[in-house]
Amino acid sequence: MPDEIILPSHTHLDRLGIPYERRSFPTTIERGAASVARALGFAERQMVKTLIFETDLGERALVMLGGDQSAVSGHLKKLLGSRNIRLASPEAVVATTGYAIGSIPPFHWQPEGFRSFLEESLMKEPLLGVGTGRWGEEILIAPADLVRASRARIVNLTERERPVTGGGRL
C-alpha cells in the first residue's frame, strides 16, 4: 500500500531481513494485550507485553511476557541480580525506550549491552504480536524472529518450580 506508515520498528526488521506481518486495530479499543488480542483474533498469550523493569542499581531491562502472564518476582530478581526491582515509571520508560507505555516495540531502541528477556513458553506459539510504537498498529512475528530482532535471552519467568535460566539466545 502506498500510504502505509513506515515506523522505526518496521525499518529495523526490514534491515535485518526478518519477516513479519503488519496488522491494524481500532485506536479506540481499551489499552492492553487482551483488547488487542480480541481485536485481531488471537489468544491473549500471543500478544506480548513489553515491560521495562529497573533495579536499585539503576539498570533497566526489557521483559517480554504473554498478555495473560505474570513474572515470578523471585525469578526477575535473580535474573536482574537485585533484590530491589520494580516496574519503571512512565517517565523512565519514555527516557529508556523513546515510547510511552502501551505500544513499546521490543526492538530497535536498545543500546549495546541493554538486556532483554523473553518468557520461554512463548517460543511454542506460532506467531506473536508486538507493539510498533504507535497504538493501533501491531507486528506479527515468529518467536525465533522476535528473539533475533530484540537480541533477547529466552528464560523461564512464569513457572515458580523451575529455574529461571532457559535455553539462552537462539
Give an overview in words:
The chain has 170 residues and is an alpha+beta fold. The chain is built from five helices and nine strands; from the N terminus they run αβαββαβαβββαββ. The strands form two sheets. Strands 4-2-3-5-8-9 form a six-stranded mixed beta sheet. Strands 1-7-6 form a three-stranded antiparallel beta sheet. The model has no long low-confidence stretch (mean pLDDT 93).
Q: What's the number of structural domains?
A: 1
User: Which structural category fits the helices and strands?
Assistant: alpha+beta
Radius of gyration from CA coordinates = 15 Å
Q: Return the string of H and E elements.
A: HEHEEHEHEEEHEE
Low-confidence stretches: none
How much strand? Answer: 25-35%
Q: Order of strands across the widest beta sheet?
A: 4-2-3-5-8-9
The residue-averaged pLDDT reads: 93
Largest sheet: 6 strands, mixed
Could you tell me the CATH topology label. YbaK protein
The CATH top-level class label = Alpha Beta
Q: Can you tell me the CATH superfamily?
A: YbaK/aminoacyl-tRNA synthetase-associated domain
Question: Helix share of residues?
Answer: 10-25%
Q: What's the architecture in CATH terms?
A: Alpha-Beta Complex
Shape: globular
Question: What's the count of strands?
Answer: 9
N-end to C-end Cα span: 33 Å
| Total of helices | 5
